[in-house]
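Q: A reviewer asked whether we had any structural model of the full assembly, not just the individual parts. We don't, so I'm hoping you can provide one. Inputs are below.
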Amino acid sequence: MKTQTIIALKFLLVMTILTGIIYPLLMTGLAQLGFPSKANGSLIMKDGKVIGSELIGQKFDSSIYFWSRPSAIGYNPIPSGASNYGPTSDTLKKQVGARRVFFAKMNSLSDPLSTPKEMVFASGSGLDPHISPEAALVQADRVIKARHLNDNQKEELLKKIKDMTQAPQFLCLGEPRINVLILNLELDKIGQNLPVR
Amino acid sequence: MNEAIQIVLFMVALAALSPLLGRYMAKVFIGEKHFMKPVFGWLETSIYKVSGVKSEEEMNWKTYLYGVLLFNLFGMVVLFLLQMFQAYLPLNTEKLPNVSWHLSFNTAASFITNTNWQSYSGENTLSYLVQMMGLTVQNFVSAATGIAVVLALIRGLTRKTTDALGNFWADMTRSVIYVLLPLSIILTMVFVSQGAVQTFSHYVKATTLQGTEQVIPLGPAASQSVIKQLGTNGGGFFNANAAHPFESPTPFTNFLEMLALLIISSSLVFTYGHYMKSKRQARAIFITMFILFAVGLAISLWSEYSHNNVLNISGNMEGKETRFGVANSVLFSVVTTDASCGAVNCMHDSLSPLSGMVSMFNMMLGEIIFGGVGSGLYGIIIFIILTVFIAGLMVGRTPEYLGKKIEAFEMKMAILAILAPSIVIKLFSAIACSIPAGVSSLNNAGPHGLSEILYAFSSAAGNNGSAFGGLNANTVFYNLMIGFDMLIGRFGIIVPVMAIAGSMAKKKVTPVSSGTFRTDNWLFVMLLISVILIVGGLTFFPPLALGPIVEHFLMNLGVTF
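A: Here is a predicted structure for the entire assembly that you could use as a starting point for your response.
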């Protein structure tokens, strides 16, 4: 029994070194060599400053941008999380009702119930970087109006939405989706006009 | 349509890969030549040398169990201390304070028992050092412990008139370096290529497009994320677990996560087949598990896609990610609770009542539908022993399994292993429902509140670790209750399993005759499923009726809380 005790201690030490130090260090080394940008968080730079990560959603509620999904943590990633409201939660029912009405009003939808569902429900991580292509399309008119885009720009934007839509991976995995932050960055490139008098 | 293709693809991949990995693992553990031996053989021998293991020396069940318990005790103490003193230790880039004693206890119990219940949220509680040297290490060794225990049981069942059940340290070493480590290394690289983070940099401050500040957490997440799946651990690097884009950035990583968390448990069934020298026996167990999995999945999908009269929608997206959608979220929730993984890619608290119930019931059954790495197989073997016993009573013969007589001692131990987790689930839930310290943590009212409590204790006793996350579990009351729940759910089964292994190993084998009750045909599969469902159903129907079932009917009436 005494030998087993000594072995147990030594074995824990060996495993800690192997799986707790060597393994993560080795993986970090290889990851940094092979995929440096992704391993460091797929950060997006603009004018030398970090403006976010491609994979971490941001809060968009201005009328000149495509909106991201509701988030229980307001897109503050420390820590990530969800509402955890259950299917019979009164709070959730009220939230969803209010979001539907607001979204429909701001995007000139006649029926609040036609609001795309991911735009009324908060995501699991609170950091969902995507919305569905439909949810982007129903917001296009609002964005075009708010930015006073001309016909050429309008066409460019609609083409961008189409091009940036990611199909299910390998044709069958996951859902079609569009990255809100990247879409809005492209939108900024298209620009914004002064109101036409 | 796309939903159906993904689900079928997953099932096919699981059924096709399991026999292959099962065969490989049999070679590893029996000690035959295999292709990883030239790669990591040197590592195996050096580990034995450094820690003083004589790998050829086999142990009896008591010595083996002593090794298991002692190793886990030391692991728990180290993990507890690492958290208590993380502020004074290196690699604490965000200057996080020491973790409270009760949370340290909970997380230590959680990780050594392969539960990985998250009372903590990684981003703002644990330093990189604790994540690596504490959590990642336990992700490996708690999974290896499960494999080691089931190997001892398998040897006990398939050997005759012996005391020898193998060498615990050798089984641990081989599990880690030939199975868990190589798979982790490959998967980590795939995950990073998809966008999972793997770095030691500080968190990054970003100024968002709308001009607010956003702190982006980083860390060596990918390497931990993959082993937490492979080892059916499930404790996330980040709070949102596999819903977090840095842990599972794409639908492909999501698919791999689901496969990774089930594959070792399902393959071990085939490994068992090699030990028994009977593919039919293994297939019967696999089919039993697969049927229970498929039925649960069907109910859960139906429920989640049904209309919710409260929210006026079918297939709601609360707590789900756009890239995964509803089908992948439901599939993940079923798979992760079948295996005792507990990683989540959607928030189970927000699932429809009956989907949540399927997840809960999977755990209440004792995590035997594939189950945890190793623990799933020894769990279902306990149910097989019970089924053989009941069948023996029905036909009036001495029950036998694999030619060995099942006697009073084995039955006592089997019943102990089945009752231990069930009793703590119900007892602890009852206590939590009755006192303010239990009820004040609820996030939802009405029957869903009961579900939150019930889910927590089922998850802990089943060593699953997923949660109805609304429950604020980081309180002294819950950290202690759930901590003990996890320890009883783990060692309350391991101890009787090892005792069964020891007593079965000593027995003689009677040759198969026409009167032998077969355990490798459809009749037995159906009997086994019935016993599992009757035991689980009788134990848990009353609380489930008061929780998710009544919530389902109230939801249909549009009632809210």
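A: Points you may want to mention in the reply: The CA atoms of residues 149 and 374 of chain B lie 7 Å apart. The beta strands of chain B are 204-207, 213-216, 307-308, 313-314, 400-401, 404-405.
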